């Protein structure tokens, strides 16, 4: 049965290899590995017990040598390897030891002996799992072909003959017990010992040590999961203490969560504040630039004022009289007076009326310029707008007064 499975596995590997070689038309390095459907290569049922297997005792039992076992035996005559132990709290160290025993020879039949509770308690100590639980755990290991219940503490020739054992697998460290320095000494002397390696860092004693060391943690754990203090052999005071510790731990966890959330909130606020400051700086630069373009030394407002002043001067300047006309002397002071002035002007003559009419006409460009300023200064403050208008009026009216005739 195992040989058929090995043939199927090798056939699948060869088919995948052919697919990799055939992929790539021009010898490129592309390798496309075809996916194989998920399947189970292990046994589908637990290993049987030795007392449930029919043995044909008609065939004589002849042990194979180490050389014959390493070379490989026929399919109908596997090398029968025996490994025994307590296997309490079955863990990966046990499984690795059995895997090594299974792979000692090309064709191996692994028999595993499990000691009973009575022997174990007498020679080694109490176990966490009872014998039935330990039998069941070993039965479900994929490397095991047969399980021997109530295995002997010391292997006798009769036991080896009964189970037709060729080799005994165990780690090479001397195992002192039952008044002997090494219970496997006679097996080693007979040339039937096949050594395996222990897995460091994992053992039943190590697991029990962890539980005993952190007893309070595991007691609280099981109380949370519904076990009673009586089932855990915990006193009333310790039960209340564990419940109080559990509440304190919950409060600490909530405080820690709040601290983490507050840190995240502060970090987000800092990031947003930095973004706002950067935006404010950009907007302030833009506002300052626009302000300088409008009101700077070479801004648009200055050019507008210059153009308006020039137009006003052209409008209110008197036309030059011909060279043959008699010259008129300019009055030393302007004859224009403000409406609120104390002095009264002389009666208006027709000439004076015509001059005032020209003056009113000349004010029209000034009003146009003021309207342009009002239209272009929507972003100015009220104070700045009035200052600008006052300056324009002052400059324009002075020019008008200066150029008017008496």
Key structural traits:
single chain; 406 residues; alpha/beta; Rossmann fold; 5-stranded parallel β-sheet; 13 helices; 52% helix; disordered N terminus; disordered C terminus
Structure notes:
The chain is an alpha/beta fold and about 400 residues long. Among the domains are: about 150 residues, Rossmann fold; about 40 residues. Strands 3-2-1-4-5 form a five-stranded parallel beta sheet. The N terminus and C terminus are likely disordered. Pathway: Lipid metabolism; Phospholipid metabolism; phosphatidylcholine biosynthesis; phosphatidylcholine from phosphocholine: step 1/2. It catalyses: phosphocholine + CTP + H(+) = CDP-choline + diphosphate.
Question: How does the SSE layout of this entry go?
Answer:
Blueprint: H1 2-22, H2 66-71, E1 79-85, H3 92-102, E2 108-114, H4 117-123, H5 131-139, E3 146-149, H6 157-162, E4 167-171, H7 185-189, E5 193-196, H8 204-213, H9 215-224, H10 236-295, H11 300-316, H12 350-376, H13 382-403
Parallel strand pairs: 1-2, 1-4, 2-3, 4-5
Helix pairs in contact: 9-10, 11-12, 11-13, 12-13
